[in-house]
Amino acid sequence: MFHRAFALIVLAGCVFTGCSNSPTSAKAAVKAEKDRKPAPDFSLKDANGKTVKLSDYRGKVVLLNFWATWCGPCKIEIPWFIDFEQQYKDRDFAILGISLDDDGWESVKPYIEQRKINYRIMVGNDELSQQYGGVDSLPTTFVIDREGRIASIHIGLVSKSEYQDEIVHLLETPRRGTNRTAARGILAFVRAE
Length: 193
Known about the structure:
Shape: globular
Largest sheet: 6 strands, mixed
Structural class: alpha+beta
CATH architecture: 3-Layer(aba) Sandwich
CATH class: Alpha Beta
Strand order of the largest sheet: 2-10-9-5-6-7
Order of helices and strands: HEEEEEHEHEHEEEHH
Helix content: 25-40%
Distance between the termini: 72 Å
């Protein structure tokens, strides 16, 4: 009986923190702009065979999610990401999913269809994982600002509201070279017309 209870506790820990071989923390916050490092660029094929480059998303806020079809916490997050893609797609926001499934498209394509995933999915490799600091826990998610810099990193499962707060914060941050006060004045003038 003790072994069964212990196994349930371990399983619950994996579901709520992430699937990995090492203990991790799930808390993160948007870094100050001066502390953000450039996200490594990559070029991968999506499920339709089209090339996806992270650099093509410069100017957008990007949620870059490393995941796998067998990962319990990933299954919890994917519906949130589907919602975010729908909710923010017209606000210069994109989600890119990179599967680290060992059998690649064999598992991933049916999974995309079953879950009706509405954002771009690619299959990653060890080289890309190493470029992003050695992703060894899934899910691992990078929230990337409009300048292509990593604004936050989440290892394991975090709340939907935490992602949403970070996305909205970054979407509301003006692009470099944009004068926020002038933009507000123009909007006020247009609305008054």
